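Morning!

As promised:
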Amino acid sequence: MCSRNDNEDGSESYMEAKSKPLWSSTCQKCSGHNPVIQILQIKHAYCKNCFVTHVNHKFRSTLGKSKMMRPSDVVLAAFSGSLKSHAMLHLLHAGLSEKSHKRFLFKVQFIYVDEGAVLGLSLAERIANLRAIATLAEQYGFSGHFTSLACLFDSSGPRCFPLNKNSSLTAENSLENELQLLFQNIVSLTAKEDMLKQLRKQLLLLAAKELCCGKVFMAHTSTDLAIQILTDVSLGRGSLMHHDVTFCDFRDKDIKILRPLLELSSKEVAFYSVYHKLDNVFIPSLCTKMASDSSIHNLSKQFVMDLMENFPSTVSTVFRTGEKLGSTSSPDNSEEDDNSCIICQARLEVNLSPCTSAQATEFSRLISSLGPLGFDSKTLSSISGSNGAESCCSGSASNCCCNSNQDSPSLSDIMECCCYGCRLILHDLKSVSSLSERILEQVRRRKSLNSMRDSIKDFLL
Amino acid sequence: MTDGLQVTLEFGGGAELLFGNIKKHEVTLPVDDTPWTIRSLLTWMKDNLLKERPELFIQGDTVRPGILVLVNDADWELLGELDYKIESKDTILFISTLHGG
């Protein structure tokens, strides 16, 4: 009765599927040429020229509206060889060329992230991919770099290497093995995909730092982001969603991740690349050729795409709604970095109000894992005082856990330094020790900091 | 010249993976009493060209949502979708938008 969709007689009515509009035989914009594509929620038919202008305009206006680009900026474009990222490079190139009306003044570099080790490709295949990518991007004259996911496990040494047609990849075996072990240890495809996404993002941020680029461009379209929104909500990342789906991700203090294609749909980008005859290097990823129910990401993709068939406004509805959803918690004011998730760098909700769904889930997990006989009066007290309960230093301090720095941290230690979404990845991880040394190191540091804080808190005024 | 209908089928964005990783197929469709439409072409492709996992390309009698169809560089939605009558020398491009993110 409160719903808009209810009829007066009480029966519910559903939104109607799209009806076929009648097409005029000319472009609705210039009325000169035959239309070739229908866009904007299939209400408009454009000709080729008007369409290409439209895409260009959307791309430039997205960057312009944000008011974030400065002439001195150096941008690092993430380039995977896919149609989307190729279209992004092409758009950037067009915007930078002399003949463009209001030329972009920032500088552009691009980077290719080699994920071959995770995808199970041979070294020869990976080098072939690398060179194909170099050939593809050569025409634009941007300075190119490449990096490999395994570099994330390397605490020292350069991560980025110049990319050209003769670039070659040397697989650092120990690091590669570490990376492969990590992915072998993750049980579900959903967690694997999520982990890969987080690692890729981390690596891009590190690479941008190394190359002194203040901004990273990623080629997500509005369709991708609508899918991402539903995936994020299902994966327990709802509170962090606005970072993942809006124009700018400012979780990192120095480097911003921007998504200049977010006003364009996948269809528009695909047509753009067809009309410019942009080739692509197709590298099958984890979920390629998998059944649609193999992971949450694939499922949301299927859901959005199926809905789009009959309800062409699905993507924009989901996407615009997601854009408006922000976290209610106060903006980031803590400069200390021990307040962020060690895997995805999101701010941790430290001071939770007494009744949150996260606690309910934690409680339910605790009860279920204890079994019918394990539950007694002490169980509840241990969660209510979650921080104080683990007073491991109370006994003899010499062989206490917070002094033995070399021990590998336990699962619960790591969990404490992660956001809810990343905890779910860890749940699907068979062995904690396969996490990268950098992460484990951070956990150890935070743990000893925390225990230090605990031990001195009585002396503080 | 054979008396069939000559068309060029192209694949992009990952759809080529299901067709033996070949991006361009020149095919001759056999002569039939009824004119060839995209609908009948899809059935023919499923029987003759598709190498694996047909459910990733075809759903019901149409292409899987997320795969775009372009006939001579134009959106098939403007041409009547499944009922478009294929003409000789047409180029039909199937482009998947489902990969990546």
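The radius of gyration of chain B is 13 Å.

Hope this helps with the figure draft.
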